[in-house]
């Protein structure tokens, strides 16, 4: 199963991001959506799981959770916008994958058997950080992530 992971769009859904996410069986947005139209565009591609980031306010964002736990392909996935404000202990909670955004820094890291994935920012460029999304493949109960730089 292939899951597209996107974060920090800040109201901008780039055509390059849409192209990479095309064909994913599911999409996860890890917050700082910016505008409801971003969610509408992503829902046209695949079923969407989404959390609210620190810039997501207003009526359109009120019902969006700040953190989310999913079970996909036999794995427990915890989604939070900022890993520093995570309310759970991934080891104690038997989490397999933690997905977070906020920093705009794309990163894949394995810590104590937990895969930490930050897809980076798919919105407007911040400083000199790359614009990116991630792909999370789950095969035989094992997660494998890759970062995709856009443009």
Task: Please supply descriptive tags for the structure shown above.
151 residues, mainly beta, Purple Acid Phosphatase, chain A, domain 2, 5-stranded mixed β-sheet, 2 helices, 10 strands, globular
Would you mind describing this structure in some detail?
The chain is mostly beta strands. It has one domain (2-149): Purple Acid Phosphatase, chain A, domain 2. Helices cover 10% and strands 36% of the residues. It has two helices and ten strands, in the order βαβαββββββββ. The chain has helices at 15-21, 36-43; strands spanning 2-6, 26-29, 48-50, 67-72, 75-80, 97-100, 107-111, 114-118, 132-139, 142-149. A five-stranded mixed sheet has the order 3-2-1-9-10, with helices on one face. It has a five-stranded mixed sheet with strand order 4-5-6-8-7, with no helix packed on it. A hairpin with a 2-residue loop joins strand 9 and strand 10. The longest helix is centred in the first third of the chain and has 8 residues, at 36-43. It is globular. The protein starts with a strand and ends with a strand.
């Amino acid at each position: 199963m292939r899951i597209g992971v996107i974060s920090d769009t800040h109201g901008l859904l780039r055509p390059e991001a849409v192209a990479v996410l095309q064909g994913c069986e599911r999409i996860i947005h890890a917050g700082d959506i910016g505008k409801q139209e971003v969610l509408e565009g992503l829902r046209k591609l695949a079923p969407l799981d989404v959390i609210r980031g620190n810039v997501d306010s207003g009526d359109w964002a009120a019902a969006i959770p700040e953190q989310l736990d999913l079970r996909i392909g036999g794995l427990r996935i915890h989604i939070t916008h900022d890993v520093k404000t995570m309310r759970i202990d991934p080891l104690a909670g038997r989490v397999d994958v933690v997905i977070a955004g906020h920093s705009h820094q794309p990163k894949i890291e394995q810590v104590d058997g937990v895969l930490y994935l930050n897809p980076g920012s798919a919105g407007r460029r911040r400083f000199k950080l790359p614009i990116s999304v991630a792909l999370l493949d789950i095969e035989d109960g094992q997660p494998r992530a890759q970062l995709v730089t856009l443009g």
